[in-house]
Each structure stands twice: as C-alpha cells, then as structure tokens.
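Quick log. Single chain, no ligands specified.
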Amino acid sequence: MIIFQTESMALFSTKMKFYAIKKYHIQTAAIFGIKGAIVGSFKAGLLNAGTGIVRGIGDTISDSITDSKFKKAEKLLPTAKKFLIAYATL
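-> predicted structure:
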C-alpha cells in the first residue's frame, strides 16, 4: 500500500509538472504569437509600400515610353493619310 501511494504521488507530481509546463508554453506562445503577428503585419505593410513605390516608378517609365511612341505615330499620321488617299485614287 505504501509503494502504491508513493507511485501515485510521483505520477500526480509528474502530471502537475506537465500541466504547469504546458500552461507556461501556452501563455508564452500567446504573448509571442500576438507580438509576432504585430511584427509580421508591420513587415507586410512595409513590403507592400515598397512594392507600390517600385511599381509606380516602373509604370511611370512605361507610360512615358508609350507616350513618346504615340506622339511619333501622331506626327506620321498626316503623311500616312496622304499616302492612303493617293493610293486610293489610282
């Protein structure tokens, strides 16, 4: 009977230690989880802002190239119209 009580108390003590450790890890995970989520959210915001800046610069360059090509085509348009009219009258 004494051996059984000792083993029972040792098992109970082990279980209590396990639950205490588990509770500590859950609390620690909750703290680092919230902190990690805030840090992750901040980093994601910075990356999104950086991506927006880079895309904005790229779009500006692309638009200016397209505009210059369009202006060159506009200058050639009267010549092309004269050519088409001359070709149609043949």
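The first helix runs from residue 2 to 88.
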